[in-house]
Amino acid sequence: MRNLWNFIVQYQVILVFLVLQSAAIAWFVSSHGFPRGKWVRIALEWESAWQGQIIEWSQRAELSNQNFQLLEENARLRSRIAGTRTSPMQYGSEFIAAQIIRSTWTKSENHFILDQGKKNGVRVGNGVTENGAAIGKIIETTEHYAMGIPLIHNRLEWSARIGNQGAIGRLKWDGINHISGTLYDIPRSATFAPGDSVLTTGFQGVFPADILFGIIADEAPYFDGEFLNIPVIWKADFQALRYVQLSVVDDRNLLDSLEESIITSLP
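Above: the chain's sequence. Below: its structure in token form.
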């Protein structure tokens, strides 16, 4: 309804003109005999079309609000599920609902903008998901907005695993199209098949483990002389992204501190 109100305020002069024009037409129709039937049909058709458009705008605004409410509820449920996991790789996390208000998907270094920022709990490094699929991560925040980079960015690499207990490799966008990437450094002895899930490992502290990147494509892997490089189809449709969720990994700072302390203590 807010969008409808903004529309009315922006075009109030035109709307007033149309109302006055309709009143003039109504007066003319009521004052003339023979043309009345034709004018009534024209006015009825115009008014019905206008009312139908207003109803459609209203329904779209209401549907958008309902979608975001469902997204927030989904985020709360995912947070509860993440909090009940006991696997050592499933450290605590929560999820924040957000909407993409601008994005690119045809460049070599794509990005997206969210309508949530620091004020809503978003911070640099948060992982971004859509319907349980990994999308990318946040690289910049303001009070009310955040910028992220998606999987389809030629400078990103991700730690990924085939299935829940399969081989681990480096997942990277091939830069060719926005629907697929490549899982590198998989041993020749690894077992997998087209359609197998490619999941997050949780090693990078951006996502919890077992978030879906995509599935193994029905294409032969490329052997580089030492490892297999496997084509992967993204689960997310980057061209159609709108509503997303941010994964806030609770223990990330603790993990970063532990890693830094270990590195600094090495001889």
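The chain has two domains: 2-67, 92-261.
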